[in-house]
Amino acid sequence: MKKTKKRFPFFDILLTSLTIILLGASAYLLFIFNNNSSASSALPKNVDDISSTIDEVDSNFAGIKIVTEIANDPNTPFAIQYPQSKHITFNDKVKKYIHRLKYDYLMNIADYKRDHKDFTSELNISFETFQHPNGLYSFVIVNHESIDADDGKTDMQTFHLNPETGEMPTITEVLKADEEALDLFSKVVANYASEDEKLSETLSDDELATLTATDADNFQQFALTDDQLTLYFTEYKTSQETPTVSIPYKEVNHLLATDFQLSVDDLAIKGDSSTDADETPKTDEEDEGNPDVDADKEVSNKKRVALTFDDGPDPNVTMRVLETLEKYDAKATFFMLGSRVEYYPEIAKNVQEAGHELGNHSWTHPDLSKASIEKVFDEINRTSRIIEEVTGEKPYSFRPPYGAFNDVVRQQTDLPIALWDVDTLDWKHRNGQQLLASVKDSVKDGSIILMHDIHPSTADGLDAVMAYLQENGYTFVTVSELLD
């Protein structure tokens, strides 16, 4: 009988140990994979898979529609508005930009989700439309993204469109086609930038010199309004604000291409209006020639004004506005968007707790005068519900977006409609100093002043407005107090 050779036990121990190690490593890798899979399983695989509700309505600008897209997926909340036209090339360009923003947002959520279990996120994209006297539209699209309730980041992009031809001019096509025009234009920009106190405080001398250098690439982000050319320097933006320079056409008209030059009559009108804005209107007592100073004070002390702020709440600007209002022991009315109350419930609550009045400004800021009954009803009532749910207080009044309403809109709410008589145009000028000029030009006893608590420049200029009104005998009341 053949004898079997006995195997040394060391090899059995080694084999068993290696098997255990391999099984353990496999189990660990499987655990990590499952965890990562479950962490991202709630996220869509790509942008096109995100469930959303899309609505399209005509805007107040001929040939331009407003597309509104609201996410249905709580894991990727967003509210987006962007322009569309009859021109395919322009539409595709805007959609491509929006698609990229949504993709980046989705990727940022996925990255953050790997290391964090529970958090909130938001993507809010809105736009403003400006029209040059020659008919050209400038669209300024602003996007704000935040993850886990941080301050987030704000960015912007401009688009331009000739609504008739579909042309999308760049700054080199807006200026005369010669190097001298670009060089002179750069010098004008540098002069205005150096005179802007906030810009000088934000940027160093070297940065100011770089952003205003004679290079067309520095000026590609711009908007042509009815009375000025505004430049946006996105490369020098902070997390919340983009440096801007606004130049009246009278300063650069001679440097513009023929199609963008204003006539002598138009320039005269623009010049007259800008001059008037700097003048302080006479009080009623001065108009009457009343020499009794004490009587003047008694009358002036009865003057009332309602400060109103639209389109918020905003985590930064709204809080700055609240600080300034507290400084003057003033109460104001905030007309809030339901979609932003949903994103920033704590900020909305802060407004209510500070004793200010809450107003309804719709859910997504559409032109309700052109919407269906169902759309109008949902926009208003959904907003009232979220405001009451978050703050415990019902809105006192309703301000229709753009001030546009009809009988259909009136019939969908019992809230009184509150418009305004002093439009600061803060959304247009984005200049804190211009805010005071606009108020001086139009304010009177019983005025309702329109501002927006989403623009940093509004928060910058509010203190000067408050000081002026207080010095001129105005007391600050809410809209409901004026309406009553």
Structure commentary:
The protein has 484 residues and is α/β, with parallel strands linked by helices. It has three domains: 47-161, Fervidobacterium nodosum Rt17-B1 like (Heat Shock Protein 90, 2-Layer Sandwich); 171-204 and 212-264, Alpha-Beta Complex (Actin, Chain A, domain 4), CATH 3.90.640; 284-483, Glycoside hydrolase/deacetylase (TIM Barrel). It is 43% helix and 20% strand. It has 19 helices and 16 strands. The strands form three sheets. Strands 10, 11, 12, 13, 14, 15 and 16 form a seven-stranded parallel β-sheet that branches. A hairpin with a 5-residue loop joins β4 (121-131) and β5 (137-147). α11 runs parallel beside α18 (456-471) and α17 crosses α18 (456-471). The termini are far apart.
Question: What does this entry show, briefly?
Answer:
By secondary structure, the protein is α/β, with parallel strands linked by helices. The protein is built from 19 helices and 16 strands. Helix 11 (317-327) packs parallel to helix 18 (456-471) and helix 17 crosses helix 18 (456-471).
What's the topology here?
Layout: H1 9-41, E1 52-58, E2 65-71, E3 78-84, H2 88-113, E4 121-131, E5 137-147, E6 153-161, H3 171-174, H4 179-195, H5 197-202, H6 205-211, E7 222-224, E8 228-232, E9 244-248, H7 249-252, H8 264-277, H9 284-288, H10 293-300, E10 303-310, H11 317-327, E11 333-336, H12 338-343, H13 345-353, E12 357-360, H14 373-391, E13 397-398, H15 407-411, E14 422-423, H16 426-429, H17 432-442, E15 447-452, H18 456-471, E16 474-477, H19 479-483
Parallel strand pairs: 3-4, 10-11, 10-15, 10-16, 11-12, 12-13, 14-15
Antiparallel strand pairs: 1-2, 2-3, 4-5, 5-6, 7-8, 8-9
Helix pairs in contact: 11-18, 17-18
